[in-house]
Amino acid sequence: MSRTVIRGGLVITASDEIHADVLIEDGRIAALAASGTPAAEAWSAERTIDATGKYVIPGGVDAHTHMELPFGGTFASDTFETGTRAAAWGGTTTIVDFAVQSVGHSLREGLDAWHAKAEGNCAIDYAFHMIVSDVNQETLKEMDLLVEEGVTSFKQFMAYPGVFYSDDGQILRAMQRSAENGGLIMMHAENGIAIDVLVEQALARGETDPRYHGEVRKALLEAEATHRAIKLAQVAGAPLYVVHVSAMEAVAELARARDEGLNVFGETCPQYLFLSTDNLAEPDFEGSKYVCSTPLRPKEHQAKLWQGLRTNDLQVVSTDHCPFCFVGQKELGRGDFSKIPNGLPGVENRMDLLHQAVVDGHISRRRWIEIACATPARMFGMYPKKGTIAPGADADVVIYDPHAEQIISAETHHMNVDYSAYEGKRLTGRVETVLSRGELVITEREYTGHAGHGTYTPRSTCQYLN
Predict the structure, then answer these.
(1) End-to-end CA distance of the chain
(2) Prediction pTM value
(3) pLDDT value at position 72?
(4) Is the separation of the CB atoms in 372 and 13 below 8 Å?
């Protein structure tokens, strides 16, 4: 039996803050006891970690990543090995990535392909959602089987006609199936058919720079698709999780649905909270670094997103980590913004950026842990194994220095991408030590983990629906 004691830290979960020591046995949290009490003092262990003056928080759960995703004739630049290592550096100890069904192929083929990419390569634990690109009778039957084996969420796209796109009838059928089998439909809510018309018109006018990516993917078309997805889910009697919400008009649709008592959930991402169309407009094609979908919005949307996180109209902050290098990948879209691969790096930055939001007064410390750890774990059927510090939970624990200062830079990050979306941003707070199932992955700012430590985690259904 291996034992570790973490002494003297402020343990922060979604519900509590307590000065406590934490006992870890065989990869799990065994006990907590108030620091300095006889119960805590009586613990002996092979390893003692001093967390005095630091936070002791659950490892982050990033419920939206795309490692090795094929997109636009290229691939996301992070592998499961490099991406999960970078995640660990940023205090994230579980990712939920997206396996992809290609049109004409089965869900099983897509899931098997993603298992093959990830197995033996991950530094931290991982799970999968399933992208459903081809709804038919066989696909619908497969959804039932996947739910039974722990792949309990399915992503559909109202965007990207000809690639991932599903029409309203296909979406309704999948939602009806998930209403029966307990699965959760995740929706990329943008009106892709209308957007394609606007893209064609913009290019015909000679509007080819990256900033036009944001102008054609209009906030109203995100709001319209969000509204339509909500109504289809209501007809199907199914829950709905809207991914990467970026527009205040879409937040309003979610808030309205939740006020009506519907099981509708929303996720946003750090890029929408900290970046804007100002970045897309950067000269010399630099704006291409910030091309993602849904796109960055004008700055005034940020306040509404923060408000949504405070009022719980938005429940989760994930990264949608999907990095493409500026050189050779983003550059594919020089002269045609529609050919810029869509995606940003961020898996390493999320926990720190959200701590900065605590420092800046946008959210509380407990809300930080709630939106980054506990709620994603509950939403996707992994709580309390993941997302909290409590007896029986996996010992996924981060020692966090709330006073350390850092400057984000591509020169010092660990993601396999040649730029940072947050280059030069000053932050207060930094990950110091990370344990994954009791094993040290980051030890006082040194990487001590290894590929293959991370294991696949089957999931139960959404715990907000039980």
Answers:
(1) 35
(2) 0.98
(3) 84
(4) no
